Each structure stands twice: as structure tokens, then as C-alpha cells.
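Propose amino acids for all 250 sites.
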């Protein structure tokens, strides 16, 4: 993690003492957790300001985290949602988690880990592999965890949301790629675990992660036993397939 990113975490932690106390409680109860999504982009890159705090946990920890969260304004989420991605693919995912206000910040705990299209399933859960490869910074003696940059990029490349709904997945991916280079070995193993496919790799290629995506294993017919190395493709193919609809203008 860069010194600048560490400085952002320290500054943010000192400004949110009640949030720090919540992190202490998570650590004391041995809950694996990590700052995720747009908040991690803000911390790692400083490219934009997040209005909330996303924390990802394994689903089996949801009961513990619910008991630790402040009682006021707490909403438990047990829904199945449908989302249309920037490239037109419809995803359905179980939304498991909770939201609450703390230090004036809306906190969303994300405990669900799968997303399904009509023909494919992605595994975005905080798995043992993802837990081991989190980044960590100590703030006032408390370990603050951030999801591996690749996990954030992959999650956003799956969803491909754009400014029409107030999301900036392409710009976020590009910003992370420019300031963070996660381990190639982890990227390869995690890509296979997540079940990433060609539409995700195409989006990553547009975001500037070509060196990585040209050597990671890709799924064949959703069968992990048939993983093969992805060969270099024509970048313009992504545009012809409509992935560019998720690219922010300018």
C-alpha cells in the first residue's frame, strides 16, 4: 500500500472515532472484514470521494456483525435484486447484509457473494483466499483492512455501471490499475475462483489491465477443470460488443 494511501486511511480513521470503535469490535470478535467498493477506491487512489462506507464480510459472520452494529437506524437486508449492467447483461444477486449510520456515515455491510446472469455465475464473496490477500493499515493500534485491489476491480468489471445511475465503475477500475498492481499469482488464482469470463476481461482491458488479462485462466463452459490461458484479443472487439457503453465520457 502506498504511503499516500496509508495517509488517507490515517486521516479518515482519526476523523471517525466511533467507526474506529466498530472496527475494534469486529477484530475482537475475529470477524474477517475489508473496506470495499467505492470507499476502497477513495482510499487507494483519491480519485473521488465516497459518500458511504462499504464493508465486505463472509456471509457466516452476518449474525455477529448485526449484533455489533449500532441499534439506531439499522436495517437488515435479505433481498434478491436484479441489476442491468452497463453492457446490458442482467444479473440477479442475493443482497445479504445490513446498513446503519455511524459518525454521520452510511455504512453498508455486504455479506452476499454471488451474482448470476442467465448463463453464468460469479463468486465475489470474501473467501479464505481473499481474506489472506487483504491489505492492512494500523490506525491508533487498530488493524484496518482493505480488500485486495484486484477484488475491487473484478467486482466493478462484473457490474459495469455508469454515470447514468451515479456509478463510475470504469473510471474506478482505471484509477486503481494506475496506482496499484496486485500480485500476478493472486490475480490468476482469484480470477478462476471468481469465475471471470470474457465480458469481464474485455472491460478490464479497456481499463488498462491488458498485461494481466492476457495471461489469466478463463472458464470454459463454467467448468473449472477446463480452465485455459486467455490469449490476446483485439481490443476493438470489446467496443463492437457494446462494452464501451459503460465508459465515462471525457
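Proposal:
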Amino acid at each position: 500500500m502506498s504511503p499516500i494511501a496509508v495517509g488517507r486511511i490515517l486521516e479518515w480513521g482519526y476523523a471517525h472515532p466511533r467507526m474506529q470503535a466498530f472496527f475494534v469490535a469486529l477484530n475482537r470478535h475475529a470477524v474477517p472484514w475489508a473496506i470495499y467498493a467505492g470507499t476502497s477506491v477513495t482510499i487507494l487512489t483519491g480519485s473521488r470521494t465516497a459518500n458511504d462506507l462499504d464493508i465486505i464480510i463472509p456471509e457466516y459472520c452476518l449474525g455477529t456483525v448485526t449484533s455489533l452494529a449500532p441499534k439506531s437506524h439499522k436495517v437488515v437486508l435479505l433481498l434478491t435484486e436484479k441489476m442491468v449492467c452497463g453492457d446490458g447483461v442482467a444479473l440477479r444477486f442475493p443482497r445479504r447484509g445490513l446498513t446503519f449510520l455511524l459518525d454521520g456515515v452510511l455504512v453498508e455491510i455486504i455479506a452476499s457473494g454471488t451474482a448470476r446472469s442467465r448463463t453464468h455465475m460469479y463468486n465475489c464473496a470474501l473467501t479464505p483466499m481473499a481474506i489472506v490477500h487483504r491489505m492492512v493499515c494500523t490506525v491508533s493500534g487498530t488493524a484496518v483492512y482493505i480488500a485486495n485491489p484486484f477484488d475491487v476491480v473484478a467486482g466493478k468489471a462484473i457490474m459495469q455501471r455508469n454515470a447514468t445511475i451515479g456509478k463510475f465503475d470504469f473510471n474506478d477500475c482505471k484509477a486503481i490499475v494506475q496506482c496499484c498492481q496486485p500480485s500476478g499469482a493472486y490475480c490468476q488464482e482469484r480470477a478462476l475462483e471468481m469465475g471471470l469470463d470474457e465480458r469481464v476481461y474485455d472491460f478490464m482491458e479497456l481499463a488498462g489491465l491488458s498485461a494481466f488479462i492476457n495471461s489469466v485462466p478463463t472458464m470454459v463452459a463454467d467448468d473449472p477443470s477446463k480452465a485455459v490461458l486467455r490469449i490476446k484479443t483485439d481490443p476493438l472487439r470489446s467496443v463492437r460488443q457494446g462494452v464501451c457503453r459503460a465508459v465515462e465520457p471525457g
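The two ends are 28 Å apart (CA to CA). DSSP finds eleven helices and eleven strands in the chain.
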